[in-house]
Write a structure and sequence with these properties.
The structure is a homodimer. By secondary structure, chain A is of the alpha/beta class. The first copy, chain A, folds into two domains: 161 residues, 3-Layer(aba) Sandwich (Rossmann fold); 154 residues, Dihydrodipicolinate Reductase, domain 2. In chain A, the strands form two sheets. The first copy, chain A, has a seven-stranded mixed beta sheet, sandwiched between helices. In chain A, strands 9-11-10-8-12-13 form a six-stranded mixed beta sheet. In chain A, helix 4 packs parallel to helix 5 and helix 5 packs parallel to helix 10. The radius of gyration of chain A is 20 Å and the shape is globular. Chains A and B meet through helix 2, helix 6, strand 13 and helix 12 of A and helix 2, helix 6, strand 13 and helix 12 of B. Strand 13 of chain A pairs antiparallel with strand 13 of chain B.
């Protein structure tokens, strides 16, 4: 049995769900992977930096050693993998980007739930990981933990993917559905907040920034084209007239906030905008459901993955699947 | 550059599409995988067994050596991988089952497009492959080449999948749609034959046998429960009253031939039957579109993969993706 030391960088709801998932899969991890997990570090803005290479309890780490920064924490916790799920600045990916770089530089696998570092540092973090023969993985960053990056990397090699589209922001769907039922955009934002799916700043979802950043991550990794948020044509749903939203819904072509990125030779076309989609089509999602569609010549009508009503456990599972890939890599 | 010798066992439309795909990906195979492919064997009922370890042209192999059986052929062609796509007896998986066993026994990767051997010999073929450190792969056997088995094996580890459902037989969909438009079941069968999607014996599709066999493959591999066709409750679409099919379609709940298999503790429940599905839902597919849905606690509403209008190239791509996994394994 191999002992695998894990450290939680950020210990909010996703990290807690991941800790529960690791616990619930303990016997399968032992039998199928020959691995026993032990938390050796936990850090968050409210807790501070805590580490004990002999093991600690993430929910009450106060008997461990208090560290003063990421470097001290990593050297004290000596983890095999860091699970990063901190709050960050969506326009820079910081401080997660620096933390992930430091993790990889010390030869530790980095599993991140954040899209920001994928957008602003994918090439650099990936090169760092390669140079230390470690993995940088981020399956939970897009589509809340359903396979997106691993699907393409592991199941669709040389498929010749030319475009990716989808509904990437469930808050926008919930807001549009609230308006369809007669409410206002602000009612919809409150509804999304009550469901716990809105970003801390919901304007970020409603104005399309969240979808833009996810589309950039998809472009960087899947289409292998560097795309920055400023390169994406962006129209949010805030300025859509509620009467038009309701009429479109009644006519069987509701609005959804759709992201599309495609490659034609060297040109990348990327946009996030409200689109009218046929009721019942793959893009006409409801609630928290997310959908990603892949265009490739070998799939004449395309290939669509839909994750219905994902929750925190789904996001945590994305990190868990990444973790299992790290185990397989070392 | 590593030379990779490939042999085609069966050289019908799927194998020909695969040969074209290998040719069209030649430069990517060289750059990304460091591999150059060379056909060294081809065999079919019409051609006979042909092999030349120095290379041959599958479409006109007559300058190669004529062999007298599978063993002679494998020893003469000395392939690294065999692509098997022969016609077979759906009730036994033969002769593909024996051919695949012989391939693996000689230490050659086996990539098969057939579901029969998965149903009747998965455990045995898999054990043979393991004992020779080779792979037995069959991604094209279900869902015409879209990721099903690789999705679960590589992207959904320890996801705790409890059930799989879907529309696995496009012929049944085409027949039902023909009836919905006013035609007969037999009109629909002719339509499916004209589209080239019907099995050689279309009653096999219409009576649900095709879906039953695919469901057994899914159960054996994904749910890790041995399931034989006789264990599946089967109702085909032949005895559905056309007026009822049309009324269901008009009412927005059309019939589709749905397969479902689920596990509850030790009990496996498996059935193939016509079901009324909500128009526009994931199961309300049209034409050749295939859909597979996975139930797991980490995906609260389930995860659905839809392959819209797949064709022969899609099936060939399933074999090609398997081939790339073989390259990675040796």
């Amino acid at each position: 049995m191999r002992r695998y030391a894990v450290a939680f960088l950020g210990f909010g709801n996703v990290a807690k769900a991941l800790a529960r998932l690791l616990e619930s899969r303990r016997s399968e991890l032992a039998v199928r992977y020959g691995v026993s997990c032990q938390a050796t570090g936990v850090a968050s803005r409210s807790l501070g930096w805590w580490a004990d290479a002999a093991g600690l309890t993430p929910t009450s780490p106060q008997s461990a050693t208090r560290c003063y920064d990421i470097g001290d924490w990593l050297l004290t916790a000596r983890p095999d993998v860091v699970f990063e799920s901190i709050a960050l600045d969506a326009h820079t990916g910081q401080p997660a980007l620096d933390y992930l770089a430091e993790t990889l530089r010390l030869g530790v696998h980095a599993v991140s739930a954040n899209k920001g570092p994928v957008v602003y540092g994918y090439q650099r973090l990936n090169a760092l990981a390669d140079s230390h023969a470690k993995l940088y993985r981020f399956e939970a960053a897009v589509m809340d933990g359903a396979p997106v990056f691993s699907l393409v990397r592991r199941c669709l090699p040389l498929a010749g993917i030319r475009g990716v589209s989808g509904v990437f922001t469930s808050t926008a769907t919930v807001v549009l559905e609230t308006v369809e039922r007669g409410g206002s955009i602000d009612d919809g934002i409150r509804e999304a907040q009550a469901l716990g799916i809105a970003e801390s700043d919901p304007t970020y979802d409603v104005d399309g920034w969240d979808a833009v950043v996810k589309l950039c991550a998809v472009s960087n990794v899947i289409l292998e084209r560097a795309l920055r948020p400023a390169d994406v044509q962006r129209t949010g749903i805030r300025d859509l007239d509620p009467t038009i939203i309701r009429a479109a819904h009644r006519d069987g072509h509701p609005y959804r906030l759709v992201g599309r990125v495609s490659v034609d030779h060297d040109a990348v076309d990327a946009r996030v905008q409200p689109e009218q989609v046929p009721a019942g089509s793959a893009l006409a999602v409801s609630g928290a459901t997310l959908v990603t569609h892949y265009d490739a010549a070998v799939f004449p009508g395309g290939l669509t993955m839909t994750s219905f009503a994902p929750d925190l456990t789904t996001t945590a599972y994305g990190m868990f699947a990444d973790f299992l890939e790290c185990i397989g890599a070392t």
